[in-house]
Amino acid sequence: MWWLESADADSQSSHDGGVVEAGDVLRLGSHAVRLDDIVSYKLEEVIERDYDGLLVNASVLLISAGVFLIGLLQFGWLERVLIGFVLLIILGMSGAAELMGLNQIRSMQLTVFTHQGRRVKFASTDSREIDRLIGFLRQAA
Fold first, then answer.
1. Angle at CA 75, nearest 5°, toward 73 and 77?
2. CB of 27 within 8 A of CB of 2?
3. How far apart are CA 134 and CA 129, in angstroms?
4. Which residues of the chain have pLDDT under 50?
5. Closest residue by Cα to residue 116 from 32, 38, 3
6. Which residues pair with 3 in a beta bridge?
7. 3-state helix/strand/coil string of the chain
8. Is 61 within 8 Å of 92 (Cβ atoms)?
9. What is the pLDDT of residues 83-92, one digit of tens each?
10. Is the Cβ–Cβ distance between 132 and 63 less than 8 Å?
11. So where are the chain's domains?
């Protein structure tokens, strides 16, 4: 979440759609950056996946399905245990599909650079929020 705070505590001009002043402060989450201190910004798309958890999950389920199949074919387990084999195969294959990247978490990360060399990062999964922030930064610059 980002918002603009007025430099003057009594002034509400930046809050009600008025003129943005150079001393106003842009809040990016818990970070504060003065508008006149902003040099540039960079936008990146970040894609995240939980490889380790999905790999362990798929491996355990497929190994368990293999144990069930060996028990059915070699040790003469009851055929009603076959439903467990089918269930474990389905769960293992869904874990493998997740591992292939069908379920990705995409977010946009905006990095604001200041005159002092500080980098302030702001990330959001809502592209409309990032678009509004970029539009504001272009207008304020």
1. 80
2. yes
3. 9
4. 11-16
5. 38
6. 27
7. CEEEECCCCCCCCCCCCCCCCCCCEEEECCEEEEHHHEEEEEEEEEEECCHHHHHHHHHHHHHHHHHHHHHHHHCCCCHHHHHHHHHHHHHHHHHHHHHHHHCCEEEEEEEEEECCCCEEEEEECCHHHHHHHHHHHHHHC
8. yes
9. 878 888 888 8
10. no
11. 2-47+105-140, 51-100
Tokens representing 15? 């809050």
Q: Which amino acid is at 46?
A: V
What are the distances in angstroms from CA 50 to CA 8, 63, 107?
Answer: 45, 20, 15
Q: pTM above the 0.90 mark?
A: no
Q: Residues, the chain, total?
A: 141
CATH topology of domain 2-47+105-140: PH-domain like (2.30.29)
Indicate the residue type of 78: L
Structure tokens given for 112 = 């604001």
